[in-house]
Design brief:
Helix content is about 30%, strand content about 25%. A hairpin with a 2-residue loop joins strand 20 and strand 21. Helix 3 crosses helix 13.
Length: about 475
């Protein structure tokens, strides 16, 4: 039966199947549970053979792990997807306009819509980008927007990932796995495809070349190397797009252009899809201690001879304090009310907000402003007194490092448990491509699922898993 504490995406409160899942349930009830259990085990072996792994940092066993995968798809109706798509498109337009503004005229600061120190004192703000316009004026070529659902047609944005969003390889491999395991399901349920993402990504990147490039552009993926937690994804995407995967030692600046080493000599690169954070991108212009960056790459970019996706400096749009102002940012740049809601947020740097958060920690979720992957956060309702007390001390010592939010009742979808279908909490990361042709939201995304019953933590680094996400055709 569904969890009555939250919105169940498969069942209504009175136990009636929702229309979105009706065809799936018809299929499921005809299946042999032992066969499904075998299929679940086969997916793990398939992931192992394919090498679908991730790294977990900060632990003794911090080596490559298989990402858990559940074979029961998360299904989204065409109507809900239209709402999600419109809201994401609006949000991404506003983020791009915001980034252009804060690195040029800073009209939003002049209008006092957000505090100036939120920009000037933000480590993610790059003064080196002031006055620099990226090719085609696109800052965010690839965006991941994390969503949660709380009710029928009710979606909230948890955070924006505009720097180097990861997880798209899992979305693609999850779909490929389901197609192999249950091809008959796709003949019974009209699911929108996601497999065109790599070619869509390549076209998007190639369309955003510097204006001086007249021939077919050369595109490459820049990775920190094999020890990065998302290295599987870097190599996967490069392979799927049919382009080179390069590291620092493969690149150099020649005659004001970025070039990569090939067996025929050095070849100029026009577009680089970088998976390295700003700080480590260029030891000449940013962190001089960087061992993975390319010396002088930012000078080539600033001169207009290279497209870097995403643009340097976009990380400030990931900042969770900036996130709390997104409704104002959307209204300022689009003149519209936000189509997707923000989660109510207390900024701990503000005295009154800090006081409230300290008094209500057992009820709240507290996150680091620059945190990611589920690290450095407190989930009050599932924390013990010692953990709450320790976090109080952190908040008092560095309140500007944190924001707090109410604990949302995340929606649930079924997983395959020993007892059959069992509800678990989920979130969703749709992937967005921005190009000269417009904004494209891939119909699906990465559904992350809390495999432990009752848990609200969906991050793979914290024990969560993934599912294939099915968006139904109209």
């Amino acid at each position: 039966m569904p969890d009555i504490q939250c919105f169940d995406e498969m069942w209504t409160a009175d136990g009636t199947i929702r229309h979105t899942y009706q065809n799936f349930l018809n299929w499921f009830e005809q299946e042999d549970p032992k066969r499904l259990s075998r299929k679940q085990s086969e997916t793990e072996e398939l992931f192992r053979l394919t090498g679908i792994t991730f790294n977990v940092y900060g632990r003794e066993e911090a080596e490559e792990r298989l990402i858990p995968f559940d074979i029961i798809p998360r299904i989204i109706s065409a109507r809900d997807w239209r709402k999600i798509t419109r809201g994401i498109e609006q949000r991404v337009r506003a983020i791009n306009a915001f980034l252009h503004d804060i690195y040029h005229r800073q009209e939003i600061l002049r209008a006092n819509r957000i505090p100036k120190n939120l920009i000037s004192e933000n480590a993610a703000f790059l003064p080196q980008m002031i006055g620099v316009s990226p090719p085609c004026d696109i800052y965010t070529h690839i965006v991941g927007v994390d969503l949660v659902r709380t009710d029928q047609g009710e979606f909230y944005v948890l955070e924006d990932n505009a720097r180097t969003p990861s997880g798209v390889s899992y979305m693609l491999e999850n779909r490929e796995t389901m197609l192999q395991m249950f091809p008959e399901l796709f003949s019974q349920i009209n699911v929108r495809p996601v497999q065109t993402y790599p070619i869509d990504l390549l076209r998007s990147l190639a369309s955003s070349t510097p204006s001086a490039i007249s021939s077919k552009p050369t595109v490459a993926v820049l990775t920190p190397g094999i020890y990065n937690s998302a290295y599987f994804e870097h190599s996967f995407l490069a392979d799927e797009m049919g382009i080179e995967l390069v590291e620092k030692q493969d690149l150099r600046v020649i005659d004001g252009h970025l070039a990569m080493r090939t067996i025929q000599g050095y070849k100029r690169i026009d577009v680089i899809y970088r998976r390295i954070d700003d700080e480590y991108l260029d030891p000449l212009n940013f962190n001089p201690e960087s061992q993975i960056g390319v010396t002088g790459i930012f000078d080539v970019y600033r001169a207009g001879h290279l497209t870097i996706a995403n643009a340097p400096g976009t990380g400030i749009a990931d900042d969770k304090a900036i996130y709390s102002y997104m409704p104002e940012i959307i209204k300022f740049y689009t003149g519209e009310q936000p189509l997707l809601k923000n989660v109510p947020t207390w900024r701990c740097i503000e005295k009154d907000s800090l006081s409230y958060v300290l008094d209500h920690l057992p009820e709240l979720v507290v996150k680091e402003v620059h945190g990611s992957g589920g690290y450095g956060m407190l989930i009050g309702p599932t924390s013990n007194k010692r953990e709450i007390e320790d976090f109080k001390n952190k908040l008092k010592a560095q309140p500007g490092n944190y924001i707090a939010q109410p604990t949302l009742a995340l929606s649930t979808v079924p997983i395959l448990a020993e007892s059959g279908l069992s509800p678990r909490h989920v979130d969703l990361r749709p992937f967005v491509l921005v190009s000269t042709q417009g904004i494209t939201v891939t119909p699906g995304g990465l559904t992350r699922v809390a495999l432990e019953k009752g848990s609200l933590v969906v991050n793979s680094s914290q024990g969560g898993g993934t599912k294939d996400t099915w968006v139904l055709e109209e």
